[in-house]
């Protein structure tokens, strides 16, 4: 199994999950930009994902899965005995879907143009910054009531939330208004899976 990734992006989420589940995998680093390429080969990454987005997961059968939330759930369900597999309980299942949708459309895609597309300009970035506040408020309220984003146990949505909200630091967004979120990031940052994924990203950047 091969994970196409780029350091400091949402591909951190499936990277964390691969460690969490103990699934053997290799990494292929993608250089994001106008013409994304897999650095080690120079090959055009759009052959893997036509939009040039990370993450993509090459399955052992050679098929490629794109879209972060599908990858996360595919990985979790490929270990059906894991507590990370899709919950059987209908309420829990849709609570998880709710948060995956929320993180993807309300958080990730508010941050994303700002981070990866400076051509959107300063005005778009200022709008994104303002729009983030009420969206982080929603997360804060949930984390005041629960240890994890979809309830009281770690789920695939936590891997995704961790990856996305970690962007606050490089963007110099203070987490002071969201203390439960700040504590959550601190706590999750101690997880072995997250430490291992971040260490691998660091090694990739240094290589
Ligand atoms: N819909 C895709 C979006 C993934 C995405 O936005 N990836 C970002 C990194 S976090 C990216 O590759 N951006 C490159 C670009 O926008 O050109 C998914 O959810 O997997």
From TrEMBL:
Q: Has UniProt tagged this entry with the keyword Transferase?
A: yes
Gene Ontology MF: a single term: transferase activity
Specify whether Lipid biosynthesis is a keyword of the entry.
no
| The organism's place on the tree of life at top rank | Bacteria
State the Pfam families in the record.
Answer: GST_C, GST_N_2
Full protein name: Glutathione transferase GstA
Q: Which residues form a coiled coil?
A: none
Q: Where is the GST C-terminal domain?
A: 89-207
Residues in the signal sequence: none
Gene source species = Montanilutibacter psychrotolerans
What InterPro entries would the database entry show?
Glutathione-S-Trfase_C-like, Glutathione-S-Trfase_C_sf, Glutathione_S-Trfase, Glutathione_S-Trfase_N, GST_C, Thioredoxin-like_sf
The GST N-terminal domain sits at 1-83
Which keywords fit this entry according to its UniProt record? Transferase
